[in-house]
């Protein structure tokens, strides 16, 4: 028998008049007991208020911007003796409408569509429900295949498809929670694209490039080393050893946790079965739950002769087969510029072409300016608003033709690197056999617990939408594993940072100035130029700066960016400040060690507050 009850604010630690910053449900939604209904944000913490019963929301008594205290009525609920709503139904009801994160895998924040406000604080939180790039909707759910009827070779509670940072994190976390887990990986070693042919080997080569550049720069200060002698075999060996240490460590941890690993290409054959093509033949795995962590692959533009090894994707570039005399990099995003940095330092004449009007299009223009100026001196050329329309393999090299506003002089290259993005592997894993809905472009929609439309199958990482970043995948992985283990866990990151490990490094997180302007957000900026940093002067790298972006009404930090050496390390403080809801005074009054590059974060906050003494800033007119 259905009954109507009022859902009230419980004891919230003595706080009164706490603002409502999110309403997570709407009238007509079916909710589960303990499901979050609203989010409150006091001066000390952010808290979600759960429903005390399961049922259907008949009336909402609060809206975003209201201030409420203990005992206030949140909603009127029609509860029934039928009990708790199905988890997937409840989650679908609670999850906001998918909202794509802006930027090509660059990690900028997006305003939650449920916020009901245009203030800058709300815009720092990405939609809790990851969504495909461009907001592409999923196809209607396919009809799942029936069980094969075959005797399985392996049975488990959980199978994880893919062992990249997301996949191995999911497997290890699940195993730590006593879930019987099998990890399927196509590579001979664990780690996926990131560890084997992506993040890790590229950073090893970027380190070598940095040493070469720093040694050359010191000649202007009285310390000369002479021209570098490049031994490619030893450099490749160094890269391989770096990868081996990490992948070997993963294999050891999998064994310690009793995670069974299967090497081969896995595809679903039914909602509870997966085939793995191994070196020893086909193996059938029967599972209770699955986490899809199959990642993405480089986009291969049809204009290029991919059957010629002189045309490379990022994986081919990292093999470092040779240092070409002339290298064309197609794509001025993070991957393309990182590899341009490596090959230029090793001795290649590098030309970059980018279709957009800015390299690393997702970042603010002022943030990119110091990098662009340095690349202009280091590379043969960076050509914006330009694209390759044809590429032919000839005896002389790869001959290309262009169209656009900035046509390069060079048309024949020894090698070409195509780095124009990555596409998810959602359509390559037999997801339809399991009944999992996948978009035409290969993305999979999930809820805040990383569930797909099939309740016992989850998806994480590149497959579930932008940004395609390893650190996002690892957090999603923990959520999925914990939900499989029966814990109450949700993915609810406020912001996701992005870093380009170029020279100088570029890092940003949360709201950008460009985004604030486009959305009409009221923000203020605190900026500290590194020309005033003792540490930056001491290392002769004063081209950088630190920028913080604050909500003008609350003075809370909503975004930040750094360009300069070690920007990728320094951005973490800004990420934490946003997550903790820090105000400018919190950051500025925190004592930072001197002389460091890190103190520029505190000084940027002081610049915003108008209290800085390391710069002269005219007083603001009242």
Descriptive report:
With 622 residues, the chain is α/β, with parallel strands linked by helices. Helices cover 25% and strands 25% of the residues. The protein contains 14 helices and 30 strands. The strands form 7 sheets. Strands 9, 10, 11, 12, 13, 14 and 25 form a 7-stranded mixed beta sheet that branches. Strands 16-23-17-18-19 form a 5-stranded parallel beta sheet. A hairpin with a 4-residue loop joins β4 and β5. α4 packs across α7. The N and C termini lie far apart (64 Å). Mean pLDDT is 88; it is low at 82-135.
Unreliable stretches (pLDDT < 50, length at least 5) are 82-135
Sheet with the most strands, sense and barrel status: 7 strands, mixed
- Indicate the mean pLDDT: 88
Number of helices: 14
Rg estimate, integer Å: 26 Å
User: Hey, roughly how much beta strand do the residues contain?
Assistant: 25-35%
Structural class: alpha/beta
How many DSSP-defined strands?
30
Backbone shape:
globular
* Overall helicity: 25-40%
Tell me the span between the first and last alpha carbons. 64 Å
How is the topology of this model organized?
Layout: E1 3-8, E2 18-23, E3 30-31, E4 36-41, E5 46-50, E6 55-60, E7 67-68, E8 73-79, H1 87-94, E9 154-161, H2 165-176, E10 181-185, H3 192-197, H4 199-217, H5 232-256, E11 260-263, E12 265-270, E13 273-278, E14 281-292, E15 296-298, E16 311-312, H6 314-318, E17 326-330, H7 334-346, E18 349-354, H8 365-378, E19 381-384, E20 386-393, E21 398-404, E22 412-413, E23 415-418, E24 422-424, E25 457-459, H9 470-484, E26 498-500, E27 506-510, H10 513-519, E28 523-529, H11 534-538, E29 545-551, E30 557-563, H12 567-579, H13 584-588, H14 599-609
Parallel strand pairs: 9-10, 9-14, 10-11, 14-25, 16-23, 17-18, 17-23, 18-19
Antiparallel strand pairs: 1-8, 2-4, 2-7, 3-6, 4-5, 6-8, 12-13, 13-14, 15-24, 20-21, 21-22, 26-27, 27-30, 28-29, 29-30
Helix pairs in contact: 2-9, 4-5, 4-7
